[in-house]
Amino acid sequence: MQETILEVNGLNAFYGRAHILFDVGLKVRKGEVVALMGRNGAGKSTTMKAIMGMLSRTQGEISFMGNPIAKSAPHVISKMGMGFVPEDRRVFTDLTVLENLEVGSQSEREGAPHWTAEKLFELFPNLGEMPHRPGGNMSGGEQQMLTVSRTLMGNPYLVLLDEPSEGVAPVIVEQMANMIMALKKQGLTILLSEQNLQFADLVCDRAYVLENGHVRFEGTMEELAANDDVRRNYLSV
Amino acid sequence: MTLSGLLVQLLNGLVDASSLFLVASGLSLIFGVTRIMNFAHGSFYMLGVYVAYTFVSHMGESVGGFWVAIILSSLVVALLGALIEIVILRRVYRAPELFQLLATFSLVLILQDLALFIWGPEDLFGPRAPGLTGSIEILGRNFPQYNLVMIVIGPAVLGILWLLLNKTRWGVLIRAATQDREMVSTLGVNQAWLFTSVFALGCFLAGLGGALQEPRIPANLALDLESIGTAFVVVVVGGMGSIPGAFLAALLIAEVKALCIALGTLHIFGIDFPMSKMTLVAEFLIMAIILVIRPWGLLGKPQAAARNDHSAEPPLRPSLPIFKWCTAALVLALLLVPVFEETFPYAQIILVEIFIAVLFAASLHFVMGPGGMHSFGHAAYFGLGAYGAAILVVTWKLPMELALVAGPLLAVLGALVFGWFSVRLSGVYLAMLTFAFAQIVWSIVYQWDDVTGGSNGIFGVWPSDWLSSTTALYYLTLSIMLAGILILRRILFAPFGLAIRAARDSDLRADAIGVDVKRVQWVAFVVAGLFGGIAGAIYVFSKGGISPEAIGVGRSIDGLVMVLLGGVQTLFGPIVGASIFTWLHDSVARETDYWKAVLGMIILLIVLLFPAGIVGTLSHLWHWVKHHILLQTKKEEASK
């Protein structure tokens, strides 16, 4: 079995006085693609933001490659080799494609796939056709590719990928699935938040199911497929 | 006017545009990335002039020495800026906007006293630039060579900044951070150092702008507020965060001013319009117009709201009976003060000053606390009320009683006009616009000699005979202050007061339940203006006159400090804040030449340590103690 790259224990998170996450625990091993599933508002994005150090009030333990990061700032966590792709994309609209990539670029990291703009343009030929276009003048799908590419420019070991299939055309969803499988082949580890069970089935090894900030299920995709209760109670709309 | 005269004025406009641009570009850059509107930017400009004075005096005899001295001065200012950013500003990035503005304003006060301490109060005339002391002839008129250099420097700096922002990794990061700071940090960029570097660069530009003025103007202590007013206008007109916008705006404003001067006095319909005196008003008029038709400026973009963690304002609580009794006792004590006139001869005079401050602070609190509109120009209404009353008494020979009622109506008129514009904006933009309006009022008062007495002001405004004794004036002021506070308080608990607070907490939701938000805010603005005006009107009679200094930006800031010192979320706060502030001012200012630095430190202390103010902090403490004692007793009861 591969070594654990990310481990979260007893994670609680708050927005102001509202308690959002309750003792969330999860593990991601090197080379895995793990799904974080649940309905809207279940706490998927909050979990990712908490791991990335973006929330001002959290409690619990988070360790990344053996180092505690629960108290670290986002830029420190990023420098350790964790990438984050936000669900609302947050492309820099005033910056060109190449400039967006420049913001994300970090030096090469041993044991992680090394990315350059050229390699990313091979992965996403659409982007390669518009290196000087401002991020604001791109379609939703193109922005989605750009935001993933921007994070990959940091040569991360692990990427937190927040709902890449949300709000993009079906043809893009397919491209996203292909991309995730391609990234996995290169040795990248991914924690993927997803509502779409079919999508997760296609690319993930294991899944955690969240509901109201609690982890309700953890297991392989086969176990999830076999568990009607969990799917009915926590996933289906 | 001749063609050559016009041409030289237009060239002068280009010179001014360059120096304006240097200061404004730094301000815009800093705002774009840190979202802090740096009031102290003018102070860095002023320090640039002073430091350059010292350096050029020592080493500026050769051409090379002069330019090295200029660059060195700018670097010193940049270094100071970086230090201040690290020590102070890093602590306020997550604070509410109002506190950020105040923190930087406290720096204005501290830096001004620092300059006073180092260089003294006299104007300092520095040496001129070697090799550029002559002038060239343009259409028969002399034009200084140094000014030609100035004309070139503006566009040159614009070009360098453009290269820096577009062709370097640092510049790309800066532009990314201008749009989304949080995202930049999740991509592995340490925001803290990015902010420090931007702030240092901004201060370098301000310092350079100042240093380049060294051969042209004397170093003096008024440069900071003079330049910050105009720099704000340039940034707002150009679009916050846009460097080319700042350049365009600097050009527009400088040339409009130059035209005003070139036109001289115009005769329209038999009335003289002294256009050359319109220069101060012109820039603020341009800004008001731009803000209304294109609120994000010429080349700016509508800004996304800054991602601050604002805690919701707690609801206002009706007073407890014990508090009401304490207030009654306090009022009784105040009524008895004149009885002890012989023991405390000075008490009534300082108390009158305090009462006026309390009414002024309460009216400002009304619009910024419950109203949620942070006015940085409340002095305008104080000033309009004061000048209204003074003009009625001195020029129109009306009795005091009538002037006291009619004077504040001028403030109401001002609030009606300014408020109509102001409520259309929010946040920093609203603060800037109110600031601009106050500057307009101040400029008009300062320059309209025939009516306002110009820089001398109006004196000899004394109360009617039956009110002329200290004690009579004391009771009059006390009763007006009490009435004012009770009325303001009554309004806040009336349905209209609920609407004001609803509009503050969520304008969309308030709109959805049928509150006409803009109208309610407008009315609140006018009410605050009225009571600010009343405070101004009594002030005139208590002092026997009024001058422009008394209605300048200093008074607006004093008001803000009073409100914050007491606590912006409590009704009693401004009363306590105004009292303590006035008493402090009275006792400390007499002891030291550096009252401003003391005031600046007080502001910093509030902002960094007691953001809830005195009353707010005490109130939190009281509720905390009550809560814990209650818990304790409940536990004890349960254990029984």
Automatic annotation (TrEMBL), chain A:
Pfam families with a match to the protein in the record: ABC_tran
InterPro entries: AAA+_ATPase (IPR003593), ABC_transporter-like_ATP-bd (IPR003439), ABC_transporter-like_CS (IPR017871), BCAA_Transport_ATP-bd_LivF (IPR052156), P-loop_NTPase (IPR027417)
Record flagged with keyword DNA-binding: no
UniProt keyword annotations, A-Z: Amino-acid transport, ATP-binding, Nucleotide-binding, Transport
Sequence similarity: Belongs to the ABC transporter superfamily.
A GO MF term: ATP binding
Species classification: Bacteria, Pseudomonadati, Pseudomonadota, Gammaproteobacteria, Oceanospirillales
Organism listed in the record: Marinomonas colpomeniae
Entry-linked SUPFAM superfamilies: P-loop containing nucleoside triphosphate hydrolases (SSF52540)
Domain of life: Bacteria
SMART domains in the cross-refs: AAA
Residue ranges annotated for the ABC transporter domain, each copy included: 6-237
Name of the molecule in the record: ABC transporter ATP-binding protein
Keyword match Transport: yes
From TrEMBL, chain B:
Keywords from the named record: Amino-acid transport, Cell membrane, Membrane, Transmembrane, Transmembrane helix, Transport
Source domain of life: Bacteria
Bilayer topology: Multi-pass membrane protein
Transmembrane segment boundaries: 6-31, 43-60, 66-89, 101-120, 146-165, 186-208, 228-251, 258-275, 281-299, 320-340, 346-367, 379-396, 402-421, 428-448, 472-499, 520-541, 561-585, 597-622
Compartments where found: Cell inner membrane
Family named by the database record: Belongs to the binding-protein-dependent transport system permease family. LivHM subfamily.
Protein name in UniProt: ABC transporter permease
Organism whose genome encodes this protein: Marinomonas colpomeniae
Record lineage: Bacteria, Pseudomonadati, Pseudomonadota, Gammaproteobacteria, Oceanospirillales
